[in-house]
Design the sequence.
């Protein structure tokens, strides 16, 4: 009796699928099961495919590919459709691939089976109904979780938490390659030290994971007997774990086997094609996740290395001051950009005292490797110029010439238009280049910079600014003032740019803050609204811990500190952040000093009168009598304007809020170099001037004019009502 007759007697058909020719041969029973006349027939793949349910065809296609790759049995259930698209029966297919080079033939059987009852699917039921939906939901969840993992440790935690439908392993291990050796890079379900000799081994070891990496093909061991038969040498080492089944699946990325994944079970698993398909799919996702995590960790390590190399360590050692700094890179990519800060000890000092230091902060255009490289070069150049003893204006002029020379080598960019700058809001005096900076190609780049020279003995600070945000000072009583400074073009734009120097005094107990525009503009703010946000944080801070204040400033932009380098907020960063804080600490406790501001308004800069008015408003931010605020600002405007209009010199404005008996007092002085004393006039109704002293007489509590050697000073005072909140006690 022929084999076909025997199989037909038990309602089993025989079929052969030739992958090379795309022809499927069916015997009479197989043809009948497919809804065709009961006679042997040869059909095209497309004709046979039309008889299967579309969903089941996709399943059998994956099962067959897996069986061909692993040389194992392909098994599945298939729903047979008639010409009207109705399911007429369900058949069970079992086939074995016969591989010949890149081609193969599948030889197998078809047998009719009863449709499964609802709820009857189990861990070894082929992929139908609830089991299929459960598997698909599991793979979706697993893929999502692995895609979100950002480090190797997170990937391994996700892998350990996966609950596979119906056959979850209780022991997992991930093996990675290190040269010619295999190393356990993570495990679950074992105590540390349990791995013993499996921790690291040669690729030639007679161990399943090593063979998987050598061959690139999975190994399934459904029973201890099978393990003992195939790997007798390492079986005694695996036996003590008490497992019943093992699956070793290759981890493949871009066609390269990078390691192996072991799933071990306390119960026996048959490793049906369905189960092998799930394990293989999870292994592919796991390999991709590990590869991504490895690249991300390498980038983070490179970023941290660059940051450690380029950013100074601001440790103790300079008496009388406290310094704190933070650098936070923009999200994504290499996480290192063009922002930097530095603190430089300068030669010499005043009277052999504490000496001088320089504080530098800057921002090279861009957030890429070239920006980081230029930043490193510029930082070294600034250090060299400062260490030679040059003044702040000379340091920035030389640095601009240096960067301009570096840009000469990149000026032949593809578009021929170089870099564009501008578009940001004005912030302080001079020009600030921020927000709107654009860059195309490999052409020239500019850098903003703020350079401060601090005399630690006297507290004087000489400032030169190249298109950078102005510094701010937090006074002893918590009042925060933005210190407008003269400025020039960003570095690298013009080889012969001048950078005027502005001087201010930092009293003991006061804190100086300098930052890049990333601290101000992140979160949809422009420079003005961003500064108001930072001002509130500075004023609300209590205590003298600069490290805590630095964290507060950064967290206001990026959230909790745990997200500064990793986590969901990292990718939302809009710009690098650099912030530097310096505070002068008195040797002994001193009485609280008055809040004071001082600024020069040059003849060529009448626009700075608006800044003088704003300085007075900031100085009186907590003045309880609001009716006195506008008169104070008006008198300041009149006094400074009179100097610029009626003399040939500059105006020096000094404003101070201090205690006098039981009330606070505002005293404003405006000095100039002219010996001509002002006198009160009686202007007519239509006169355009002559009312300055009249206004002061009406609005000030006290005022006067004092000759001061070569020049004079005109002053006025306002006294806060006694008993008001915030007054002296």
Sequence:
């Amino acid at each position: 009796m022929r084999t076909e007759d025997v199989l037909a007697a038990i309602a089993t058909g025989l079929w052969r699928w030739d992958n090379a020719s795309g022809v499927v041969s069916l015997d009479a029973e197989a043809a009948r099961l497919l809804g065709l006349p009961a006679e042997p027939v040869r059909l095209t793949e497309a004709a046979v495919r039309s008889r299967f349910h579309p969903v089941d065809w996709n399943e059998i296609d994956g099962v067959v590919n897996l069986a061909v790759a692993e040389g194992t049995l392909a098994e599945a259930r298939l729903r047979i459709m008639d010409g009207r698209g109705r399911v007429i029966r369900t058949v069970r297919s079992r086939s074995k691939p016969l591989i010949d080079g890149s081609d193969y033939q599948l030889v197998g059987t078809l047998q009719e089976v009863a449709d499964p009852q609802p709820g009857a699917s189990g861990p070894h039921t082929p992929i139908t109904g609830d089991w299929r939906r459960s598997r698909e939901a599991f793979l979706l969840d697993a893929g999502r979780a692995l895609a979100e993992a950002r480090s190797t440790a997170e990937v391994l935690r996700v892998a350990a938490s996966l609950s596979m439908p119906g056959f979850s392993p209780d022991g997992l291990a991930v093996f990675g390659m290190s040269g010619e050796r295999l190393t356990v890079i993570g495990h679950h379900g074992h105590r540390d030290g349990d791995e013993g000799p499996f921790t690291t081994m040669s690729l030639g070891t007679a161990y399943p994971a090593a063979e998987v990496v050598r061959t690139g093909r999975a190994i399934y061991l459904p029973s201890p007997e099978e393990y003992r038969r195939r790997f007798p040498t390492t079986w005694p080492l695996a036996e003590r774990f008490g497992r019943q089944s093992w699956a070793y699946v290759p981890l493949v990325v871009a066609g390269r086997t990078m390691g192996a994944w072991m799933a071990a079970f306390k119960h026996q698993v048959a490793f049906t094609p369905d189960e092998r398909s799930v394990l293989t799919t999870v292994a592919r996702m796991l390999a991709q996740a590990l590869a991504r995590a490895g690249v991300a960790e390498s980038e983070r390590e490179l970023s941290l290395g660059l940051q450690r190399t380029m950013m100074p360590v601001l440790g103790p050692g300079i008496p009388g001051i406290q310094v704190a700094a933070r650098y936070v890179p923009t999200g994504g990519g290499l996480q290192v950009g063009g922002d930097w800060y530095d603190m430089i000890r300068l030669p010499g000092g005043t009277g052999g005292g504490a000496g001088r230091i320089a504080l530098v902060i800057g921002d090279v255009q861009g957030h890429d490797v070239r920006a980081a490289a230029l930043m490193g070069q510029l930082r070294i150049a600034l250090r060299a110029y400062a260490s030679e003893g040059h003044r702040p204006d000379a340091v920035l002029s030389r640095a601009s010439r240096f960067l301009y020379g570096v840009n000469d080598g990149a000026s032949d960019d593809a578009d021929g238009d170089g870099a564009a700058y501008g578009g940001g809001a004005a912030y302080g005096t001079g020009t600030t280049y921020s927000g709107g900076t654009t860059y195309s190609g490999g052409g020239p780049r500019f850098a903003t910079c703020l350079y401060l020279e601090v005399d630690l003995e006297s507290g004087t600070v000489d400032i030169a600014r190249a298109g950078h945000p102005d510094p701010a000072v937090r006074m002893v009583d918590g009042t925060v003032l933005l210190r407008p400074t003269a400025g020039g073009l960003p570095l690298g734009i013009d080889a012969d740019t001048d950078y005027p120097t502005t001087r201010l005094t930092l009293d003991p107990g006061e804190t100086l803050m300098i930052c890049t525009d990333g601290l101000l503009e992140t979160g949809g703010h422009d420079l003005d609204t961003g500064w108001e946000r930072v001002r509130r944080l500075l004023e609300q801070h209590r205590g003298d811990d600069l490290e805590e204040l630095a964290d507060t400033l950064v967290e206001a932009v990026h959230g909790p500190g745990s997200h500064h380098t990793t986590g969901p907020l990292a990718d939302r960063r809009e710009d690098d952040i650099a912030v530097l804080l310096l505070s002068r600490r008195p040797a002994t406790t001193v009485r609280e000093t008055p809040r004071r501001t001082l600024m020069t308004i040059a003849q060529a800069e009448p626009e700075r009168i608006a800044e003088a008015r704003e300085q007075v408003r900031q100085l009186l931010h907590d003045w309880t009598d609001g009716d006195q605020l506008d008169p104070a600002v008006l008198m300041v405007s009149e006094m400074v304007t009179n100097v610029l209009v009626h003399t040939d010199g500059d105006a020096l404005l000094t404003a101070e809020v201090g205690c006098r008996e039981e009330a606070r007092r505002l005293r404003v002085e405006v000095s100039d170099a002219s010996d001509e004393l002002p006198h009160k006039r009686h202007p007519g109704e239509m006169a355009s001037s002559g009312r300055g002293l009249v206004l002061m007489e009406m609005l000030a509590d006290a005022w006067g004019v004092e000759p001061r050697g070569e020049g004079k000073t005109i002053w006025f005072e306002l006294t806060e009502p006694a008993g008001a909140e915030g007054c002296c006690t």
Summary: Confidence is low (pLDDT under 50) at residues 116-129, 412-441, 562-573.
